[in-house]
Amino acid sequence: MISETGHFFHIDFGHFLGNWQKWKGLKRDRAPFVFTPELAYVMGGKNSPDFERFCKLCAKAYNIVRKNSHIIMNMFSLVSKYV
């Protein structure tokens, strides 16, 4: 997806919530995080400053989510009661 400002982003909530693609009963996707070579290319390659910035932002976001995981789990438990 591309935002109105031209920024590229993609969030696959299917993977995030455990909805893995299967083929003949086997999980097709092996990695918990899907990052294609094309995404690295768009950022200038794996040795570019933009890719390094991306990795640092991902690590920072992960640590924020991990620190607040109890809040996120409570929200999911509330939602699951109504689904």
What does this structure look like?
There is one protein chain. With 83 residues, the protein is mainly alpha-helical. 49% of the residues lie in helices and 5% in strands. The chain has 4 helices and 2 strands, in the order αββααα. A two-stranded antiparallel ribbon has the order 1-2. It is extended. The mean pLDDT is 79.
Helix content: 40-55%
Domain count: the total is: 1
Mean pLDDT equals 79
Helical stretch tally: 4
Across the major sheet, the strand order is 1-2
Number of strands: 2
Distance between the first and last residues' Cα: 27 Å
The computed structural class is mainly alpha
Overall shape:
extended
Rg, Å, rounded:
16 Å
Low-confidence stretches: none
- The proportion of residues in beta strands is under 5%
Which descriptors would you attach to this protein?
mainly alpha, two-stranded antiparallel ribbon
Structure at a glance:
The protein is mostly helical.
What is the element layout, followed by pairings?
Layout: H1 13-16, E1 22-23, E2 26-27, H2 37-42, H3 49-67, H4 69-80
